[in-house]
Amino acid sequence: MSIKAVSFDLGHTLAFPRYDSMVKIAGEAGIETDRCGLEMIEMKLRRWFDELVLAEGVSDELWKRYYAKFFSELGAPAGEIENLLLAVWREHSESVGLWTEPAPGANEVLSVLSASEMQVACVSNNDGRLPAMIDYLGWSDYFDLLVDSGELGISKPDPGIFEYTLNKLDRKAAELIHIGDYYSVDVIGARRAGATGVLYDPLGGYGSLDCTVISDLKEVCGLLESNQ
């Protein structure tokens, strides 16, 4: 069966956080770093986070643990971590939040897909602000469907969020490819619903996995063409 629909995660797939804000927050706590330093910590923690998700599922408390470990790995003193968490939360709570930097190639790929016959969705573990984030990024016209876990009440990797997506798009599971940055959340979640999960790993941090891995979003177009 050929692919008729593609869904994307938002964070760390179509959009990245404002790393300049993260660097500033760290700097105010006396931690010198840069974008590369932040990305290296994120890459380092992916396997650890995957194991937690598969064992416990996704929750607000899990994300708090993630960022506590993130700042610890960055070199923050234990006594500063709570303040750093609050600073990040305040920054993310304003307007549409931190995730407002388009990933390399995202605009081009979404433009090409929206002009094709392919249905395009964004399936994000979010807090109800996904439509506002997409509008801020100028992408509202590119999507046939936006699925926000905060609105739906189901988070990836629960297959229910993908089953909802398939129902709204009126597609069979075998007709959907989902692109995301976390193996445990995006690849496993899509598989549990019978769809195909593709891992977006631009820094090559995961290594060998039992799924298709891409390092550039522009690879999505070729991947979809080969599955027609």
Describe the structure concisely.
The chain is α/β, with parallel strands linked by helices. The chain has helices spanning 19-28, 35-56, 60-73, 81-93, 106-114, 130-136, 149-152, 159-169, 183-192, 219-225, and strands at residues 5-8, 15-16, 101-102, 119-124, 145-148, 176-180, 196-200, 212-214. Helix 2 packs antiparallel against helix 3 (60-73).
Folded structure, characterized:
It contains ten helices and eight strands. It is of the alpha/beta class. The chain folds into two domains: 137 residues, Rossmann fold; 76 residues. Helix 2 runs antiparallel to helix 3. 33% of the residues are buried.
Question: What structural keywords apply?
Answer:
2 domains; alpha/beta; Rossmann fold; two-stranded antiparallel ribbon; about 230 residues
What topology emerges from the helices and strands here?
Elements: E1 5-8, E2 15-16, H1 19-28, H2 35-56, H3 60-73, H4 81-93, E3 101-102, H5 106-114, E4 119-124, H6 130-136, E5 145-148, H7 149-152, H8 159-169, E6 176-180, H9 183-192, E7 196-200, E8 212-214, H10 219-225
Parallel strand pairs: 1-4, 1-6, 4-5, 6-7, 7-8
Antiparallel strand pairs: 2-3
